[in-house]
Amino acid sequence: MALQLSKMTAGRRDGIPKRIRLKKDDVVKVITGKDKGKTGRIIEVDHTLGRVIVEGINMVKRATKPNPQRGIKGGIAEREASIHVSNVMIMTSGGIATRIGSKVETVGGKTRRVRIARKTGEVLDNK
To answer: Which pTM value belongs to this model?
Structure first.
């Protein structure tokens, strides 16, 4: 059901952020909801809906039919559901939840934009 943003009506576009600064493999902390206070690693980012899937967070039970051809055993399986990006904050290496800012850095004549932690000023990009 992932629609293109250009085809969405104004009412459907509410709650979808213009830019998501979170990336796959970022460690985030949940700030609201049933899993408030838990931390996990981002598995997937959905830019069209403004949601992320975080490892071990927002677990839901799904009934699955057995499929011997694919080797799937039937029963009730638990998996992660998506959570809105506004409900998570990125964690610094020191374990502090923070907002994300950006800064232009020049290294050896090349300029690039890096993500920084607003609280500590620490560079969040690993590369």
So the answer is: 0.80
